[in-house]
Amino acid sequence: MWRYTLKRLIQGVITVWFIATATFFAMHNVPGDPLANDKAVTEEIRANLEAKYGLDRPIGEQYAIYMKNLVRGDFGISFTQQNREVNDIIKEHFPISATLGILAVIFAALGGVLWGALTALYRNKLPDIIIMFLVILGISVPSFVFAGLGQLALVNLNDLLGQSILPVAGWGTVSHMLVPSLVLGLGTMAYLTRLMRSSMLEVISADYIRTAKAKGLPATRIFTRHQLRNAILPVITVLGPAIAAITTGGFVVEMVFAIPGLGRYFVQAVQQLDYTVIMGTTVFYGAFLVFMVIVVDLVYGLVDPRVRLE
Amino acid sequence: MAEAGLTSTDFERIEQSAAIQAITRPSLSYWQDAWIRLKDNRRALYSLYLIIALLMFTIAGPWVWRIDPGAQDVDQISQPPGTDRKATVVEPFVPWDGTTLIDTGTGLRLAQPATTQAVRIQWDPLTSTGTYRVYRNIFPLGEERAFGLPLAEVSGSDGLYFEDRLDLRPGTYHYAVVVLDEFGGPGERFETLEVELTRVITVYEALAKGLVASTNDIRIGDEVKLALHPFGTDYLGRDMLARLMAGAGVSLFIGIFAPFLYVLLGVVYGATAGFIGGRTDQGLMRFADFVVALPFLLFMILFKIVFGIGPGESGIMPMLLALVILAWPATARLVRGQILQIREEGYISACRLLGAKTTYLVVRHMIPNTMGVILVTLTFAVPSAIFTEAFLSFIGMGVAPPTPSWGSMCNEGLKTMLTYPHELVFPALFISITVLAFNLLGDGLRDALDARMRSRE
Amino acid sequence: MSDITSSEDGFTRTAGRQLALFFLMAIGGVAALMWVLSIAASLTSSGTTTSQAVDAETGTVTIAFTTEPPQLDSTLATDMQSGMVLGHVMEGLLTYDANNEIAPGVAERWEIGENDATFWLREDARWSDGETVTAHDFVFAWRTALDPKRASEYAFILYPIKNAEAVNTGKLPLDALGAQAVDDRTLTVQFERPLAYFDKLVAFTTYLPVRQDFFENTDGKYGADADKLLYNGPFMMTSWVHGASLRMDKNPHYWNRDKVKLNTINVGYITPDPNARLNLFKDNNIALSGLTAENLPSALENRWQIHRFVDGSVFFIEFNHREDRVTRNLNLRKAMLLAQDSAELVYKVTKIPGYLPGASLFPTWLMGVDKPLREEYPANLPRMDLELARRHLDLAKRELGVDQIPPLTFLTGDNPISNIQSEYFQAVFKKNLGLDVKIDKQIFKQRLAKMTSGDFDLVLAGWGPDYNDPLTFGDLFASWNLNNRGRYANPELDRQVRIAQSSLDPKTRMDAFGQIQQILIDDAVIIPNYERGSVYVTHPHVKGVLRRVIGADVDYTRAWIDTGA
Q1: What integer pLDDT is reported at residue B457 of this predicted model?
Q2: What is the pLDDT of residue C133?
Q3: What domains does chain C contain, in order, with CATH numbers?
Q4: How many CB pairs lie under 8 A apart between chains A and B?
Q5: How far apart are CA C216 and CA C74, in angstroms?
Q6: What is the pLDDT of residue B22?
Q7: How many Å is the Cα radius of gyration of chain A?
Q8: Selected residue with higher pLDDT from C202 and B299
Q9: Cα of A41 to nearest chain B Cα, Å
Q10: Residues in CB range of C131: below 8 A, 6 or more apart
């Protein structure tokens, strides 16, 4: 177990290095001029700017400096927000994206498992039909449409009630988090519901369930201990990728709901060719995802005794 | 050695008289079996028809609906389906200096009949000196005194007039001229006017739009019918149906071709790794692991700007390339797993013992046996590729204008969601239907092709 | 058989109950988790708090920003959003009053001569820590802005000061700058050449004061956070949560504090999405929201008072005049100028009431000698004339020796308006002249790189004013101006620019601007598109909000709350 974890961690570090290198060279091949601005500057000022950001050195040296700083956990200073460190940007905005993402994953996982179990239980009956219809909607409608509609629904709801129950945008309190994280988790929830349903159906007709019933085990015990627990396993396996998709896919929700998350910063940074922020964010996200996948794998080993970590 | 009493006749061949055993079921190949299963799955079958219909829409559509998706008509901007298309022919527009009048009444009045070309109003001074602001509304003035859109400030003491040309649509407008107070805000004195606008067109425009064949066919005052747009028009007056078809070309091209390419790459990569095995396998798969670890959307955006879009290019190729670069490892892993599994099967060892060559093994056994999985992967990859395209277009990193795609149309439509919902609804509907159809077909294929992945429904 | 079925039903029922229990547990768990998370969030940052757009009791007005200021170091600031915040929390020697006239700021009186200027600072001007604002603070700020190591992009605006350019390029040391603090309250400035508009320059952001000791204590992070900045304006920033919110409270040390009526300007939201801002306004969360053409009908339906404002910037298509480009051909440029109608663009395509059809590089709001410049020197831009345009095109083809003009590259940005505009013009030039135009849509920095290197035939460009003098537009196409991205060079235009720069007689200067305007039209240097405007809605209880073409826009420094009660 420990050896396995260590091995995975070392692999993770190498992966992060790969991501950092890929980002660095991708970034330095982007056409365009990160130092350009609305007003043209003279050669002298340009040279000074280049010196300030170390862009005047050969690319190999830049790479070496970048790697050295990376090891120390220093991503440098933002190009557009000239007096701000990328570390500060990540420190301030990632927790917001993470909160949003975690909530969305929780919504998606809980919702997926429970709705999935419900539909399997009432297979081909009304609840099943209704929920599966919603699931199909959830899978086939793009997230930005949901986000736009979600905000519109909030405005109309508040308008109808005559007072602001849930804020339409912004961040800070519970009420700000609810709708954006639901919207963000919706697609994944739909996907997990489908997965849970089919896995539950498989479990329901499994031999050991029949045996358990024949043995006269109480229904609650069969349901929770045997059916739910076994049916959940496939859901957990896809949770890792789901977390990845949700945390990095938060751009749209962050943009629509004016949430100051890291995703929105990334999109802005790309439009501004803010090298340091782009590299910092990408490497940080990459490292985060690698770590999450490792965690999910370890958790899976704990939940499913049949899997031995090797 | 005693004679056993056998004669040579005992060794004669017995004539086969009749069928010994009737085969009750025709022998089915894997694919025939799969097809039968798929046919039984009504949802999957309908999805397949739907996909074929969508492809027809994309490929044959432009031959049937021969409207240029790029043709703009600034007189029919953002029209919902089913808008009245009647227009009266009028003289070409000439700027107005406020002197030519038809009506010589008092108060706020129309100087000329109001048309979608221009609304010309004039009024008598309300105060000795003063500045007036001209407003236009779609509602009559209520008690909240919201005058509507401020169009301009007009000052003077005599011959007050204003010409409105801003986004005029047929229907009723309520104009108001308000005397400004000392802070520059609307004051207490105002006059209002209700105006009915008729849609008009000039002879030149009618000719240019091909509504009439020659100048002789129409005269001023005639009525013509503007071009038909069954799905309405977009923000530049382009035909939505034609754009949806052109957009389908882009979205489906990326949605189908990109997965095809990266699944192919994944198959080749994974099969190579799985078949060769050993160190090569280890190395190849480690590299795949790296690529998997790249945050997908972040790198999609990064690659998009790295490849860049040149002048006049649509930006489809960079997107395709970025998708292929980032998305292949999943298939590679899957195929490698399959190959490793098949390699250990007894029939492969048997084959080898019987002296089968590698090519034979690959062509006869490996590929057919993995084909099901690959096909299912491919089908499920399509919706995600379509979503990726739509997402990138949404954040402004998609195809370059004027190339339409469903995603970029959605992005534009989202802005006008409240006012002209048809600009969002149609492209969003097409995305949803396509994604749904491919998902359901994927389910069906999985059930039909792959016994292990078969879901219980 | 029936027995089995009923036991199945029993099982389903029990399991269903169990599931319902789980549902309740899940909801409870999530609620608890969200509660914990929100507490954690409020510990780490204050974030947005749900608040009313206008709170008369506390004197607070809540507004939204489209983007946040990158940073608030006045010596580095370049963008409008920084200008807005700095206009509220800082005060220069001179400022603009409610009628956009130059008014005393930190300087209570001033004398501007032909070659120098003297400013006498008021005694009661204070920094937000209570210390006096001195002449040294200005000299330090200007030297800092010109320091070659700091590479400030707006250093050029200080160039009219003697030796500024030499200091900025490193040819002279910082203390060679022609600005001295004679004593704490007297500042003298020498000019590089005679200058007619220094009073207007001094009101610009880059001329704001910076206190040396504070600046040096911020460890290079001056202006990066609320506590990394020292204020001397009517407001002071008390919190800045990056990307989320920014709060400006009344500055108790400000000399003119009695005139400041608002207690707090709370920038509660930062979102570039116009629909989100409109929704916030509708929900009574913010007091002011701009409107796009798309959401005008919704504003009308809500019966809001709509305001209109011309924001001072002009937008145009700039031709590339470099040697190797076909757009160097005058007849081609004239053909394109004549083949389009900016009125159609504004009235049918952009559809926002605040926009004015473009007719000149000089916007309508600029003042001439006595009246607006454009009234004194009307722009006689030719009207759209397809026949004449095609004749010019034929001439151009003959001169260039081609049967068909090669496809033109049309460089544009990636914002929605330029998307629509470029698509519109592509179709117009195709339809009216048969010209092929290839749209080259690029993100901000890539577009700028291509503009600088001249990799375009046409480019959608815009220009906003820095100071309130026609010269802020007038010298744009001077051959030496780096912002003249198309490299248009005309000795006659250069001569007129020099006159406008150095003459002190208003009439002579305005004549020069009239000449420049005419040259730009005759030579078809640009295709004017529009003067940008905006329409916006405000909360009915907020009064006295100023919109400015120059300086802080939107300006709340003179705003007050009137509930009408």
Answers
A1: 41
A2: 93
A3: 28-68+233-311+533-561 (3.40.190.10), 80-227 (3.90.76.10), 314-531 (3.10.105.10)
A4: 117
A5: 15
A6: 61
A7: 24
A8: C202
A9: 24
A10: C211
Residues of chain B found within 8 Å of residue A252, distances taken between Cβ atoms:
391, 394-395
Alpha-carbon distance of B81 to B63, in angstroms, equals 21
CA angle A60, A64, A70 (to 5 degrees): 140
Beta bridge partners of B121: B110, B162
Q: Given a cut of 60, is residue C43 above it in pLDDT?
A: no
Instruction: Give the A window 75-134 contacts with C, CB below 8 Å.
Output: 78, 80-84, 88-89, 92-93, 95-96, 99, 102-103, 106-107, 110, 114, 117-118, 121-122
Whole-angstrom Cα distance, residue C263 to residue C54? 11
Asked if residues C61 and C268 have their Cβ atoms less than 8 Å apart, the reply is: no
**DSSP-assigned letter for residue B256:** I
A54 φ/ψ sector (left φ>0, alpha ψ -120 to 50, else beta) = left
Q: How confident is the model at residue A267 (pLDDT cuts 50, 70, 90)?
A: confident
Contact by Cβ (8 Å): A104, A244: no
Nearest alpha carbon to residue A280 among A292, A291, A265? A265
Per-position DSSP letters for C9-36, written without gaps between them = HHHHHHHHHHHHHHHHHHHHHHHHHHHH
**Residue C192: CB atoms within 10 Å:** 16
What residue ranges define each of the domains in chain B, with the CATH number in brackets? 47-67+236-453 (1.10.3720.10), 89-202 (2.60.40.10)
**Do the chains contact at A213 and C11, CB–CB below 8 Å?**
yes
**Confidence check: pLDDT of B3 > 70:** no
Residue C504 burial (CB count, 10 A): 12
User: Is B457–A29 a contact, with Cβ atoms under 8 angstroms apart?
Assistant: no
Residue B403: closest C-alpha in chain C = C423
Instruction: Report pLDDT for C295.
Output: 82
The distance of A30 to chain B (nearest Cα, Å) reads 4
Nearest alpha-carbon partner for C557 in C97, C104, C238: C97
C215 has pLDDT over 90:
yes
What pTM was computed for the model? 0.87
Determine the Cα–Cα distance for residues C362 and C70; give it in Å rounded to an integer.
Answer: 29
Q: Which of these, C228, C235, C223, C209, lies nearest to C72 by C-alpha position?
A: C223
Residue A234: which residues within 8 A CB-CB, separation 6 or more? Answer: A195, A196, A199
Q: How close does chain B come to C267, measured CA to CA in Å?
A: 24
CATH, domain A95-273, list 1.10.3720.10, 3.90.1150.10, 3.40.50.10490, 1.10.540.10: 1.10.3720.10
Q: Could you give the CA distance from residue C105 to residue C492 in angstroms, rounded to a whole number?
A: 39
Cβ atoms of B133 and B177 closer than 8 Å: yes
pLDDT over 80 (residue A299): no
The candidate with the shortest Cα–Cα distance to B125, out of B108, B112, B111, is: B108
The pLDDT of residue B455: 44
pLDDT average, residue stretch A94-122: 87
The pLDDT value recorded for residue C6 is 55
| pLDDT over 60 at B346, yes or no | yes
| Boundaries of every domain in chain A | 95-273
Nearest chain B alpha carbon to C430: B71
Instruction: Supply the pLDDT for residue B100.
Output: 63
- C-chain residues near B420 (CB < 8 A): 294
Q: Do B72 and C296 touch (CB under 8 A)?
A: no
Q: Is the per-residue pLDDT at B128 higher than 90? A: no
Q: Does A182 touch chain C (CB under 8 A)?
A: no
C459 touches chain A (CB under 8 A): no
Whether ipTM tops 0.95, in short, is: no
pLDDT band of residue A198 (cuts 50, 70, 90) is: confident
Measured over the CA atoms of residue C255, residue C257, residue C260 and residue C263, the dihedral's sign is positive
Structure tokens of C42?
């409020």
